[in-house]
Design goal:
The protein is α+β, with helices and mostly antiparallel strands and 249 residues long. Helix content is 34%, strand content 15%.
C-alpha cells in the first residue's frame, strides 16, 4: 500500500535500500489522527507497536519513544521483524542510505573494510560530497553492531545540517553536521593522527601524548593543539574523530 501523506523516514529508506519485502501479517487501518510513535508521521494504516515488542527488545520505552502502546508504520514493522541474528541483523547495522535506495554498509577500519570489500567511513563521507548534496539520507554510526539504532535516527538532506545518529562508548546522540566542515576537520585530524598522536590526545590535548609530542617537537605540538581548539567545540568533531584513519590503516 502506498501512503503519499508521509515523508520518508529512516525505516522507509532502510526497507528500500535493503530490499526488504512485506510481512506476512498485513497492516491494519489506523484510527483517525494516528501517528507513528517512532517517527511522528501521520498514519492511515500500520501496526500496533506492542505486537513488535518481544522479550529480546531492549528498552521498549526508548525504542517506541515512550509509547509502546502506540502505532508504527508498515515499514517500521518490517524493520523490527528483520532484526534477525540469523540474517545478520540487517536493520541493526551501521549504514548510510539515500532516499533513492543507495545503501552503504561501511566499517570504521579501512583495513577491515578492504578485507570485506566494504567501504570505509573516512572514504565514504568524502565520496558522497558534493555529488549527492541536497539528497535525503540517513546515517547511523556506531561502535556496537548489536544495537538497534534506527528508531532513534532521523533523515535529512546532505548539506549544512545533516543528521548523523552517533552511538559510541555507550553514549548516543543525533549530531547535525555541516558536511563541508566535517570533511575539513576530518582532514585536519587525520594529518595529526598520521603523526602518531592517539585519538584521545587529539580529543583532549596533544601534550598528553608526551612521547609523540617530543618527537614532533613541543613548539609544533602546541601549534597543532591550538589549531584543534575551535574544532573540539563543534558537534561533528566527534564524528570526524571516530572515523579518522591513518594511511596505513
Amino acid at each position: 500500500m502506498a501512503d503519499y501523506t508521509r515523508m520518508e523516514t529512516v525505516a522507509d529508506l532502510l526497507v528500500k535500500g535493503l530490499g526488504l519485502g512485506p510481512l506476512e501479517e498485513r497492516p491494519i487501518d489506523a484510527p483517525e489522527g494516528a501517528r507513528s510513535c517512532i517517527s511522528g508521521q501521520s498514519l492511515s494504516y500500520g501496526y500496533h507497536a506492542a505486537d513488535f515488542a518481544t522479550k529480546s527488545t531492549s528498552d521498549p520505552l526508548t525504542q517506541f519513544h515512550g509509547n509502546p502502546g502506540g502505532w508504527i508504520s508498515e515499514n517500521e514493522g518490517i524493520c523490527f521483524r528483520n532484526n534477525n541474528p540469523r540474517e545478520g541483523m540487517p536493520t541493526s547495522r551501521q549504514c548510510l542510505v539515500f532516499a533513492d535506495g543507495t545503501y552503504y554498509y561501511p566499517l570504521i577500519s579501512r583495513e577491515s573494510a578492504a578485507k570485506q570489500a566494504r567501504p570505509c567511513w573516512s572514504d565514504l563521507v568524502r565520496e558522497i560530497w558534493p555529488a549527492r548534496a541536497g539528497q535525503t539520507m540517513a546515517m547511523l554510526l556506531t561502535t556496537d553492531p548489536k544495537k538497534r539504532l534506527w528508531p532513534m535516527a532521523t533523515t535529512g538532506p546532505l548539506g549544512s545540517r545533516t543528521p548523523v545518529y552517533l552511538y559510541a562508548n555507550g553514549a548516543a546522540q543525533t549530531v547535525y553536521c555541516d558536511w563541508p566542515s566535517l570533511l575539513i576537520w576530518l582532514q585536519a585530524i587525520e594529518i595529526i593522527y598520521e603523526m602518531g598522536f592517539t585519538k584521545r590526545a587529539i580529543s583532549e590535548s596533544l601534550m598528553s601524548d608526551y612521547r609523540i609530542a617530543t618527537e614532533v617537537g613541543l613548539a609544533e605540538t602546541r601549534r597543532l593543539d591550538d589549531s584543534l581548539v575551535s574544532g573540539r567545540q563543534l558537534p561533528w568533531f566527534d564524528v570526524a574523530l571516530l572515523i579518522a584513519q591513518r594511511k596505513g590503516e
